[in-house]
């Protein structure tokens, strides 16, 4: 069985547990990031939820000792939207959505900083699968609505990237048109360096450009080693890698995915767990640990997995048969910076360099022909990192791509006066 959130249906999602035989669908540390993150503890913040009577409170949890520390009001709401949450490490606030409003809570004392009603572009739409981007301090998510076509008499899903102003609750569209008709409840992440929002739709890992809401990449997910799906993924700013759970009759192991090719590679340690609790995951980038929850005989258990080999490095049972939902690490992508500039801003400041390019996709060689001398070419990988710089000093350039791995690349091409950015696919 595959549970897929389609448009409005996702809005009523409160809590799911993955059951057995069910599937839901900068390679180096940045010194400034490490020094800032290292000053933070490994404490995780989240929502402490009991089923009967229904109640939600804000707490912190030590993933090593299992100590739960209440922060502020013992009763904030009775329900939560478990498709996303926002932890702002700069304003020291944690925001989540209950029935119809955004509650923003202080990390320091749990006081309610704001409680605003969600305002949507369309009354009948929904805003789900949201994540906070530490590079621009904005929360992004998927706005979805059902659209009726009077000509055909049919309904279809219309889904777009959107932002939400947590001070007002106003949701604003980023995508100019629909980018999907459904999404899979397997998580969502933001790569703040590349400024791309990732989610899964119809078996593809779709990346959306945060600058303009268009599709940035869309590889089909494949697991050559065996597995049914790649779920509950989280992004590590320490090594710019996306990690998640490989599912095969339960949780098989921790894996990582190449966002340009969609290929999932397993980490060596097999877990063979029956389930995971679907309330997203978080990564401690300083200690290199991926955290998620599973339902064991002892109760809901928070497990920490090594990002090196996928082995279990910590295990704590949540007390009182409670759930610990929507947890986040304060050091997750703290002070991340965007490496890929806004293409609209770049083109508005510098005249466009006119050239012809081909073949694209390419296998061995790419040829560039311009009307002026090309002085510099920067080849950037999918994370926005420059992996090769060329100084051709010619209007006709041949670039060997034999040493590049298959996937998407961005070329930053400059002359003395002009500039252009081109995306290529290497096969």
Describe the structure.
Strands 4-3-2-26 form a four-stranded antiparallel beta sheet, with no helix packed on it. It has a four-stranded antiparallel beta sheet with strand order 5-6-7-8, with no helix packed on it. It contains two helices and 33 strands. It has 427 residues and is mainly β. Strand 10 and strand 11 form a beta hairpin. The chain folds into two domains: 4-329, Neuraminidase; 343-426, Immunoglobulin-like. The longest helix is centred in the N-terminal third of the chain and has 8 residues, at 31-38. It is 4% helix and 48% strand. The chain starts with a strand and ends with a strand. The chain is globular and about 70 Å long.
Helix content: under 10%
What is the level 1 CATH name of the largest domain? Mainly Beta
Total domain count: 2
Radius of gyration: 22 Å
- Low-pLDDT sequence parts: 1-39
Under CATH, the topology of the largest domain is which? Neuraminidase
Distance between the termini: 33 Å
Number of strands: 33
CATH evolutionary superfamily of the largest domain: TolB, C-terminal domain
CATH architecture of the largest domain: 6 Propeller
Number of helices: 2
Strand order of the largest sheet: 4-3-2-26
Largest sheet: 4 strands, antiparallel
In quaternary terms, these chains amount to single chain
Shape: globular
What is the percentage of strand-forming residues?
A: over 45%
């Amino acid at each position: 069985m595959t549970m897929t959130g389609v448009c409005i249906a996702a809005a009523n999602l409160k809590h799911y547990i993955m059951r057995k035989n069910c599937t839901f669908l900068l390679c180096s540390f940045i010194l400034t990031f490490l020094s800032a993150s290292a000053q933070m503890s490994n404490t995780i913040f989240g929502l402490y939820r009991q089923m009967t009577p229904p109640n939600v409170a804000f707490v912190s949890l030590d993933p090593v000792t299992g100590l739960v520390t209440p922060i502020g009001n013992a009763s904030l709401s009775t329900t939560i939207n478990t498709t996303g949450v926002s932890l702002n490490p700069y304003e020291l606030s944690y925001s989540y959505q209950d029935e119809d409003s955004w509650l923003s809570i202080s990390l320091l004392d749990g006081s309610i900083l704001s409680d605003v009603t969600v305002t949507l572009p369309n009354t009948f739409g929904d805003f789900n699968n949201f994540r906070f981007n530490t590079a621009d301090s904005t929360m992004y998510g998927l706005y979805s609505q059902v659209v009726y076509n009077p000509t055909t008499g049919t309904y279809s899903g219309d889904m777009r990237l959107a932002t939400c102003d947590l001070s007002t609750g106003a949701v604003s569209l980023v995508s100019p048109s629909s980018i999907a008709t459904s999404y899979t409840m397997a998580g969502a992440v933001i790569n703040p360096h590349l400024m791309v929002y990732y989610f899964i739709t119809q078996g593809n890992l779709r990346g959306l450009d945060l600058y303009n809401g268009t599709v940035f990449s869309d590889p089909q997910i494949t697991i050559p080693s065996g597995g049914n799906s790649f779920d509950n993924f989280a992004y590590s700013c320490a090594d710019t890698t996306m990690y998640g759970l490989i599912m095969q009759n339960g949780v098989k192991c921790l894996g990582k995915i190449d966002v340009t090719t969609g290929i999932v590679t397993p980490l060596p340690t097999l877990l063979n767990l029956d389930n995971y609790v679907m309330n997203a995951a978080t990564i401690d980038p300083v200690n290199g640990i991926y955290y998620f929850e599973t339902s064991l005989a002892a109760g809901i258990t928070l497990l920490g997995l090594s990002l090196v080999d996928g082995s279990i490095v910590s295990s704590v049972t949540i007390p009182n048969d409670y759930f610990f939902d929507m947890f986040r690490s304060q050091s997750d992508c703290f002070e991340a910076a965007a490496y890929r500039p806004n293409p609209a801003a770049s083109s508005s400041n510098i005249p466009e360099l006119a050239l012809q390019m081909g073949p694209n996709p390419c296998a061995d060689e790419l040829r560039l022909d311009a009307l002026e001398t090309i002085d510099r070419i920067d080849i950037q990988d999918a994370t926005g990192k420059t992996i090769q710089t060329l100084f051709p000093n010619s209007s006709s350039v041949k670039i060997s791509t034999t040493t590049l791995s298959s996937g998407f690349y961005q070329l930053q091409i400059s002359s003395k006066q002009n500039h252009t950015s081109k995306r290529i696919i290497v096969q």
